[in-house]
Amino acid sequence: DLSLYTDSTRYVIWGTSFAQLKGFVDDTHPEPDRYVVNAPLYAIVLAPALVVFPMSIVAAKTWTLILGACALFLFSLWLSKMLGDHAAILGTIVLAFNPLFVVISTEVLSETSFLALVFLMFLFFERMLREEEPSRGLLISFLLSTSLAVLLREVAITLLAALFLTMIVRGKAKYAFLMIACAASFLAVWMFRNLVLVGETASGQSSNIHFIFQHALTSPDAAFHEELWARLRSNAGGFGIQLAGMLLYPILPNLIVEPGDLFRTIVNNMVWGKFIVMGAAIPLMGAGVILDFKASPSALLRVLFLLFYFAVILTYPIHDIRFLLPALPFMIYYIARSMMWLAERTEFTKNMLPQRVAFAALLVVTLPNFAGIFEVLNTNLSYRSARSTFYDRIKKNNPEKTYFAASWADVGSWIQDNTPEDIVIASSLKEPATFIGNRRIIEMNTGIPLPTFETMLRDHHTTFLLASNLWADFKSYEFLMRESQRFRFEEVATIGNVSVFNVRSRYRQRTNERQEDSRNDTTAAGWLRKGRLEIVAGNYAEAIRSLERASEMQPRQPEPVFQLFLAHAFHGDSAKAIEGVRRMFTITRATPYIWAAQTHLMAMQHVKRVPTLRSIAQKSAYLFDVGRLYWNLGYPKAAYRTIREAVRTDSSYFVGLLWAWHFAIQTTDTMDAKPYLRTLTSIDRNNAVVRSFTAMTAFADTLRRTRIPSQRSRLRLMIAQEYDKMELMEEAIDETERAIGEHAQNTRAWLNLGALFVRKNKTRAAADAYKRLLELDSANVEARKFFSQSE
Question: Which has the minimum average pLDDT: 17-31, 455-469, 499-513?
Answer without folding.
Answer: 499-513
